[in-house]
């Protein structure tokens, strides 16, 4: 999280939106959240429209829906496509704005200050977001380019290269950070009463799930195996860092209490669990199809995904109770105070919605526990829609306060504002 200092804003400073005035790499989480919401709308197409000839929906499947399916499914498909398009555009625009602002930050003294503090770990938000960009572009290509899936085997090697490049960037930022801590004793032990130091594990997990995509969908054995190995590598990196950092942060929280602005980090495990669950499905499918010549057992998916969703719910309830007790939502979500780490609230909402869709359809529908398009199925989908709606509303609130017009950046130009540096 870093330190918090207070000062009064001048009229000139107030005239500039906070995004430009106090840029931090954690702003990449705004782009990450928008990209995640685009993926969450894709889940409706993934599980509710027929796509018998490919593991994910493609342009041809969309055409078939509008030609042969009923009005209800056509309306759902249209709403999902609008959601994908809107949040994809938002993701790309916010990503470009972040890249420009980050390049400016790199040329300023503030960047060297950041690199010499615990806040250097927030640079991992960059590869984390870029990995999400690759996933979003893959979805766009499948849905928007006619006949692309017929040539997808030629595209999977490029996907592996892209994720390898993002993974190399992640290792570069992480390696530079870790070697500084070990060689120079540059870690501030007083600034650990939150879980922001787990961010590298989040980034590694995102790269791992990206590698797992060709592993699952490619029928070319070398491509599939390379995807598996890449996924194993980044899963191992994520697990190792969690084992190292989680006890340190938890012990500091027990000693000093949770840093108020670090509340969203209590939910960082929720998106990590989602990435682990999807990685399991993809790797399991790849191993089953390409190595064992069988199919992944839906019962096994029920057990693994059910446990992960349960863990997410427990983590979500604990985090909600703590943040509510500390007044976090009243201050930084419903109130007028701005805190860049608040963007960490978006990914958990997206992640729980996405993994719930996997659990509903892989764990419940495929095992026959719930019949597709039954009342129980629609009730479960309604809960996902509600969670998604709350997440979207929260993102718009944060955008207005942290990236919007100057009048939304702070309540009054003379009012003291808490400025959190990552």
Please, could you describe this protein's structure?
It is a single chain. This protein is mainly alpha-helical. The chain has a single domain, classed as Glycosyltransferase. Helix content is 70%, strand content 2%. It contains 15 helices and two strands. It has helices spanning 11-14, 18-21, 28-48, 59-68, 71-106, 109-115, 125-144, 152-184, 199-217, 221-256, 269-291, 298-325, 328-333, 346-365, 375-402; strands spanning 4-8, 416-420. Strands 1-2 form a two-stranded antiparallel sheet. α3 runs antiparallel to α15 (375-402) and α14 runs antiparallel to α15. The radius of gyration is 22 Å and the shape is globular. Residues 1-17 and 405-422 have low confidence and may be disordered.
């Amino acid at each position: 999280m870093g330190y918090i200092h207070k000062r009064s804003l001048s009229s000139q400073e107030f005239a500039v939106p906070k995004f430009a005035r106090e840029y931090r790499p954690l702003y990449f989480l705004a782009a990450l959240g928008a990209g995640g919401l685009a993926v969450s709308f894709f889940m409706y197409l993934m599980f509710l429209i027929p796509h018998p000839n490919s593991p994910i929906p493609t342009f041809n499947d969309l055409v078939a829906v509008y030609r042969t399916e009923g009005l209800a499914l056509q309306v759902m498909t249209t709403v999902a496509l609008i959601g994908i398009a809107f949040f994809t555009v938002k993701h790309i625009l916010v990503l470009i704005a972040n890249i420009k602002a980050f390049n400016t930050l790199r040329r300023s003294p503030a960047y060297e200050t950041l690199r010499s503090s615990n806040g250097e770990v927030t640079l991992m938000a960059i590869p984390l977001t870029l990995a999400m960009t690759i996933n979003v572009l893959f979805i766009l290509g499948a849905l928007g380019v006619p006949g692309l899936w017929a040539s997808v085997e030629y595209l999977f090697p490029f996907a592996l290269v892209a994720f390898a490049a993002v993974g190399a960037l992640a290792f570069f930022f992480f390696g530079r950070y870790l070697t500084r801590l070990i060689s120079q004793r540059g870690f501030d032990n007083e600034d650990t009463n939150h879980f922001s130091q787990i961010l590298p594990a989040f980034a590694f997990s995102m790269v791992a799930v990206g590698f797992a995509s060709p592993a699952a969908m490619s029928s070319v054995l070398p491509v599939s195996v390379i995807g598996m190995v890449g996924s194993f590598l980044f899963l191992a990196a994520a697990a190792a860092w969690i084992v190292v950092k989680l006890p340190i942060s938890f012990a500091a929280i027990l000693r000093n209490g949770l840093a108020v602005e670090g509340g969203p980090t209590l939910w960082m495990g929720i998106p990590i669990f989602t990435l682990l669950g999807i990685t399991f499905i993809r790797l399991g499918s790849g191993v089953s199809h390409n190595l064992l010549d069988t199919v992944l057992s839906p019962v096994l998916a029920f057990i693994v995904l059910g446990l992960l969703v349960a863990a997410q719910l427990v983590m979500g309830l604990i985090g909600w109770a703590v943040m509510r007790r500390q007044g976090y939502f009243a201050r930084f979500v419903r109130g007028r105070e701005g805190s860049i780490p608040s963007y960490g609230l978006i990914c958990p909402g997206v992640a729980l919605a996405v993994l719930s869709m996997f659990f509903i359809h892989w764990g419940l529908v495929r095992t026959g526990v719930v019949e597709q398009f039954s009342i129980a199925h629609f009730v479960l989908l309604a809960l996902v829609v509600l969670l998604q709606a709350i997440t979207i509303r929260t993102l718009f609130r944060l955008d207005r306060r942290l990236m919007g017009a100057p009048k939304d950046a702070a309540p009054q130009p003379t009012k003291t504002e808490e400025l959190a540096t990552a």
